[in-house]
Amino acid sequence: MATLLHRLGLASVRHRILVTVAWLVALVAVGVGAGTLSGATANTFSIPGQESTTALALMKERFGEASAGAVVQVVMAAPPGQKITDPANATEVTRIVAVLGKLPGAAGASNPLDPEAPAVSRDQTAAYSSIRYPVQPSEVTDEQREAVTAAIEQARTGGLTVEARGEALSNPADIGGASEILGVVVALLVLALTYRSLVAAGMNLLTAIVGVGIGAAGLVTLTGFTELQSTTPILAVMLGLAVGIDYALFIITRFRHELRRGLSVEAAAAMAVGTAGAAVVTAGLTVVIALVGLSVVGIPFLSEMGIAAAATIVIAVLVAITLVPAILGFIGVRALPRKLRGVPATSDVSDGRGFIRGWANLVTRHSWLSLIVAVAALAVVAVPFFSMKTTLAQRAAEGTTQARAQAIIDTRFGPGVSSPLLVLIDGPDSVRFAPRVQKHLTEVLPKGTLVLPPQPNQDGSAALVTIIPVTGPEDDRTVAVVHAIRDSVEGGEGSVVYVTGNTAVSIDVSQKLNDALPVYLGLVVGLAFVLLVLVFRSLLVPVVGVLGFLLTIGAAFGATVAVFQWGWAADAVNAGSTGPILSLAPIIIVGILFGLAMDYQVFLVSRMHEAHAHGAAPREAIVTGFRQAAPVVIAAATIMFAVFAAFVPEGNDTIKPIAFALAVGIAFDAFIVRMIAVPAALALLGSSAWWLPAWLRWLPELDVEGAALERHPPSVDPLPSEPAVTSA
């Protein structure tokens, strides 16, 4: 692989104009596609084959599109000491409802004072009107949302407290906001400090932006042909930007090293791609496998997210091994600080000076203490993980109209109004069978649960029984009600009974994801072990790497639960709202962190392995490899942390906990696991760390650092126009 990549790097730098133009044409093409072919995205989650999902499809058939469309609840509360049914307030409610029913795109608005379908609180101080749209929440346009907001503002002038809630008011995740800009600015600062060259820093960032731009625009274009989750493009941008910067960093750093060794610009670029590029391809492949592996859990929207993010990683790798060397051919020795141009690199890379070497000596000399402190610290942070709860019901950020509306609903109507359950009786005898279902549910469900009379469809082929639980959608008692209905009600007399509604869908999806998480975690852990055995030709190094990954995952989940579920320091990160973690977040976090953790393991430990293979004593090999690789890994982890962390304060509510978990996970993995726990554990293992049983010696050797190229460097005949390395 190293030889092939060397040839690719050489071809890219020699044909740099063609390569650069090709990538720019690709960027413009997908940009035009995104601007002209993009479509709507979805912000609801469901799993085909689940009872609740099947029932929603049947409801759409039996009751029409409006039954499964978007709904906005407009909550109206009377002034203190008054009732919503007082004549003046009732007149104002009727006026507001008339305005709501004529909003753009609305199919109508219910009147809460209608005696046949009242929606008034028991104390008669509040009421709510439901605006129905004949489309899914993601298809409600920005103009229609703005019309609702304007109508609410106008309604408040009549003396009533008026707020609104509903999925249709939530904007899909946007790309190109302040989060991405902040991450890019921090990355540029870190790169400038690392390279001590604005030219190299800017080039690194530019190539990463080209790659992530192509990936993101490609996904936006794809929305015109298939429905994607609204969070998919922004997740791909977040991940693609982070790895794109890091992968270019690894190659540019090696290019600068080869220049200082005295190689020509073309030879240095080719050698950088053949050596560091081999590690980039291996690391990128690891991330891709982990993301595509999300498909094994059998959840379509999760598979879609994984494949989309994996495609962005593939583009980042291709940019790193083709566009980066091409741009390096243009800037040449300007990638080096001016004072280092023409100055040969220090030949002894293992001298005793420098903080990095001092740190490595400290950790390896006090290996037991270092390992115990690192493991104990991460174990303490991981404690909240064991109380993690998940849900698909997203809470509105505090201070928003959605949050205020929810507070009125919970206080005046009860939290169960926000989590109605729908029992669909489907079949030719459903209308006759439905009253028996209602009577049975009234008897078996917990006291206080409201079971409304059945509502048949027009042709009598189906009926709906609405159930209002006592508790909210995130409460375990609501989950128990769903299971109680399914366990106690069976179809009969030619009818089939289903339990559905947003709450039931959330429960079903969360349960499926929770069941899939251990399976997926086992898959990626097994994959990590096999990959590391192939890379390092060792059994104990992979064990150390996998255990370190598990510590990272536990600590990342623990910190996320403490902030986003318990509310610790929630204001500091602008969490918006606290409560159970979004159920799709844990499995996505595992997949992404696995790939990134293995990146750092490969880049760091492969240098140690190489030093040991060249005859260094076990502890000295660790110190030497650490000194060579740690500075680049620290810079890469700092950049990745900054990119992920930038999405937390102002990011989309769905992305915030994922970005936070990835940011702290990267910090824990790079600065505690890989910088303390791994070198300490390897120092304790000594020579046995690199032991491979005889019966496994047949395994192929993956030269991820391009050692073969270093031992036998290919000759690169310089072109007449190539600049000298020592030019200023």
UniProtKB/TrEMBL annotation:
Q: Name a GO CC annotation attached to this entry.
A: plasma membrane
Print the keywords alphabetically. Cell membrane, Membrane, Transmembrane, Transmembrane helix
Where does the UniProt annotation locate this protein?
A: Cell membrane
Which lineage?
Answer: Bacteria, Bacillati, Actinomycetota, Actinomycetes, Micromonosporales
Tell me where it mainly resides. membrane
For this entry, the protein name equals Membrane protein
- Gene3D superfamilies, per database record: Multidrug efflux transporter AcrB transmembrane domain
**TM helices/strands, residue ranges:** 175-195, 202-222, 234-255, 267-299, 305-331, 367-386, 517-536, 543-568, 580-598, 629-648, 660-685
Question: How does it sit in the bilayer?
Answer: Multi-pass membrane protein
Pfam family, any one:
MMPL
Q: Where is the SSD domain?
A: 198-330
Family note: Belongs to the resistance-nodulation-cell division (RND) (TC 2.A.6) family. MmpL subfamily.
Which InterPro entries does UniProt cross-reference here? MMPL_dom, Mycobact_MmpL, SSD
